[in-house]
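Structure (tokenized):
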């Protein structure tokens, strides 16, 4: 159960937040070959700081807590798509989008008080 948190320095309406969160879940599922029903997305307006950003530049800090086992290519493909979308959708320059992946064993994810010990292919939405 990934948790994908976006700290954005730009204002986001509720409709934009919902649309973006839906896009993120779908994109994660495509890149990571999984379903969407277990993807958690947080979009937070804050005042993130990023070394190297010019004063006044919009910034996005992305924390992606994902299950161990995703390949480097999957993670980097997802990050590239996030970076481009944040630029297109919110005008956050790609050079000021910072994505950090943290990997966890399945037992580290707990939903409804129960650990999600191991990923199962049955979690996928596409029936494969």
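Design, position by position:
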């Amino acid at each position: 159960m990934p948790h994908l948190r976006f700290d954005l320095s730009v204002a986001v309406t509720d409709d934009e937040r919902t649309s973006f969160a839906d896009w993120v879940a779908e994109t994660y599922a495509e890149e990571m070959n999984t379903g969407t029903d277990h993807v958690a997305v947080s979009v937070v307006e804050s005042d993130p700081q990023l070394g190297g950003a010019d004063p006044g530049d919009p910034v996005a800090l992305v924390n992606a807590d994902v299950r161990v086992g995703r390949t480097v290519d999957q993670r980097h493909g997802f990050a590239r798509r996030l970076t481009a979308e944040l630029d297109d959708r919110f005008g956050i320059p790609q050079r000021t989008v910072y994505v950090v992946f943290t990997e966890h064993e399945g037992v580290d994810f707990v939903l409804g008080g129960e650990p999600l010990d191991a990923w199962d292919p049955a979690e996928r939405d596409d029936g494969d």
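Reviewer-requested clarification: Strands lie at 3-8, 40-45, 60-67, 97-104, 110-111, 114-115. The chain has one domain: 3-110.
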